[in-house]
Design goal:
By secondary structure, the chain is of the alpha+beta class. It has three domains: 2-21 and 206-214; 23-195, no CATH class; 220-386. It has helices spanning 2-16, 29-32, 39-50, 60-68, 122-133, 161-169, 179-195, 207-214, 216-245, 306-317, 324-330, 354-368, 371-386; strands at 81-89, 94-102, 106-112, 138-145, 156-160, 254-257, 264-269, 279-286, 297-304, 342-347. The protein has a five-stranded mixed beta sheet with strand order 1-2-3-4-5. Strands 6-7-8-9-10 form a five-stranded antiparallel beta sheet. Helix 4 packs across helix 6 (161-169). The radius of gyration is 33 Å and the shape is elongated. The two termini are 65 Å apart.
Amino acid sequence: MDTVYAAQLRTLERITQYLPKDPKTRVTMLEILGKTRNENLFSRLLRYFLETTPTSIGTSPLEVLFELADIPTAELDLSDVEVVVEHTFPANQTRIDLLVVAADSVVVGIENKVDAAERDDQTVDYWDGMRAEFNDQQCFGVLLSPDGRTASSPRFASIAYADLVAGFRSMDVRWLADVQHAVFWEDFLEHMERHVASGNSIPDRTPLVDLYIEHRSMLEDLNNAYEAYRRRLVEHIVENAREVLSENDDEHVWEFNAPRALEWQQIYRKHWKTAIPRLDVHFEYWNIGRPLAKPMQFMVDVERDRDKVDQFLDAFQRRMARFEAEYVEKGIVFRPSNRKHALAFKEYPPASSIEALVETCRLAAAEFQFLTAIIEDTFDELQEGTD
């Protein structure tokens, strides 16, 4: 079975070199800003592209929108357009997301719904307000939403974001003379496709996903074997460390603790967990649960109640003059910026093999062993102070 899996994996490795990666790994500007489904920002971006300022786009976005809403454009000058964000109709003080005024003869009210539903015949009120303010112009309404939901007002055309973006994609745009707007436009469309234009459709499957599905059974077998090995390896490393730390110590019981995901591993004398209530002191490994992926870190961490932690660290620091040279010699750091509650911390170079990792972890335990007696002294001092 192992040789069969090895042959299949070599084949998979060759195939994946030629498969396209997921195109959605690029981050859009709105994703960077944490505004993935913000209606106000979407409306402002639509205003920017519906107005004819970007000469390379021209009137094409308006033409797409008007066609989807069945608004006639044959005799309409779309180069003379004003788009207002959050326009308030004086007659009933309702406020619509976008108002398009074309050549002073056609008015289009656009309500943009990304997540929220229409409230209490909202589009009916918008229509009444629009007709009262623009009674000499032709008025039209558009309800824009991810799923193309029906508006409460029959005067409002329902447009799905997917149809709008598809129409925008079909435009014949000359970008070479206007790279800046090309970047803005592509970022806008990609964001709409990713977050609001998909509706309830099934996400696209990439060739890499298809390859995984085809070979899922084998890959799951391999992963299960790796996970079992990973746990045995961690247990072996921690048991080695416990042997080193407890050398010549027949008086105390040493224990270890590790979460199922193996992010970290703790080793400690059993009575350290109960010596002082709401205080937890232990040796701790990081990055051995994913062997060889990251540099291994070893530390003595102090956790739980903040006041108790500060008291312990202060009492420990008062003793440091006696062994500070040993910290320097071994490259151990007291309370580094990334581990403020670690009274001892060291990051070791990445191991080149599993055997080297095991040896490095054993070395770390040996280098930190001298701290056990000092930790005991610190516990004794704080316990005497509470008696």
